[in-house]
């Protein structure tokens, strides 16, 4: 599927550009042989000066910021370093959870193979995430996640520590979600296998807030991509 980079743009000024990253597309080129491009590659075709200011996991969709020049890149990098950028994610989790400004403060250590992380109190790096329940469903919860630090898989493992793993995230204990688990009357055609409502970790970077060059703060919201929107719609329709 050909992605038109212009269609992804949520915000643009002379220094910064924020896109709504599609799911299943890497932020940066992957080290292994070309596995289907990256957002950065599309960005550079649009403007060769663009640099990614942070990263989102390949499966995660949502707000991703780029800088158009070295000064802008430094300006945003410093804000990330000093934790002055506010990132808000939405996740659909397994189970019913009433979270009201719950902070998970547990250190994270990447595993040797680089594909996952674990909680390690002696060697892990400081990591903190704040969680709020947005909506409770029958057996599922829509959660707002505000990472204070930016460790790999931070939201995913911290939610797992709350026994609230993200739907469709088997790596950290999340189970697949099917329409049949929401709908009381569900008929599947004979000989067909039911497909999950979402085919990836149900995590979306919903908004990003940072200061532009003149110090003014901007907040950019990224609408749900189709798969996440369908999931939330079905939950609202059948899961209440």
From TrEMBL:
<comment type="similarity">
    <text>Belongs to the pseudouridine synthase RluA family.</text>
</comment>
<dbReference type="InterPro" id="IPR006145">
    <property type="entry name" value="PsdUridine_synth_RsuA/RluA"/>
</dbReference>
<dbReference type="Pfam" id="PF00849">
    <property type="entry name" value="PseudoU_synth_2"/>
</dbReference>
<feature type="domain" description="Pseudouridine synthase RsuA/RluA-like">
    <location>
        <begin position="15"/>
        <end position="160"/>
    </location>
</feature>
<keyword id="KW-0413">Isomerase</keyword>
<dbReference type="GO" id="GO:0160141">
    <property type="term" value="F:23S rRNA pseudouridine(955/2504/2580) synthase activity"/>
</dbReference>
<protein>
    <submittedName>
        <fullName>Ribosomal large subunit pseudouridine synthase C</fullName>
        <ecNumber>5.4.99.24</ecNumber>
    </submittedName>
</protein>
<dbReference type="InterPro" id="IPR050188">
    <property type="entry name" value="RluA_PseudoU_synthase"/>
</dbReference>
<dbReference type="InterPro" id="IPR020103">
    <property type="entry name" value="PsdUridine_synth_cat_dom_sf"/>
</dbReference>
């Amino acid at each position: 599927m050909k992605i038109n980079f212009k269609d992804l743009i949520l915000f643009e000024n002379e220094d910064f550009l924020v896109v709504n990253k599609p799911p299943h597309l890497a932020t940066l080129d992957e080290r292994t042989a070309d596995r289907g491009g990256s957002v950065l590659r599309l960005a550079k075709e649009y403007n060769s000066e663009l640099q990614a200011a942070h990263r989102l996991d390949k499966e995660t969709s949502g707000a991703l910021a780029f800088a158009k020049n070295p000064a802008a890149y430094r300006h945003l990098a410093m804000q990330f370093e000093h934790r002055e950028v506010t990132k808000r994610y939405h996740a659909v989790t397994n189970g019913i959870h009433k979270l009201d400004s719950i902070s998970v403060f547990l250190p994270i250590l990447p595993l040797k193979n680089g594909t996952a992380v674990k909680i390690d109190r002696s060697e892990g790096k400081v990591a903190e995430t704040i969680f709020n329940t947005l909506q409770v469903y029958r057996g599922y919860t829509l959660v707002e996640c505000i990472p204070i630090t930016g460790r790999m898989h931070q939201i995913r493992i911290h939610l797992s520590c709350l026994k609230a793993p993200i739907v469709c995230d088997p790596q950290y204990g999340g189970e697949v979600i099917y329409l049949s688990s929401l709908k009381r009357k569900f008929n599947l055609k004979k000989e067909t296998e039911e497909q999950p409502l979402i085919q990836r970790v149900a995590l979306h970077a919903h908004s990003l807030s940072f200061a532009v060059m003149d110090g003014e703060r901007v907040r950019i919201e990224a609408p749900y991509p189709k798969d996440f929107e369908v999931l939330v719609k079905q939950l609202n329709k059948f899961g209440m």
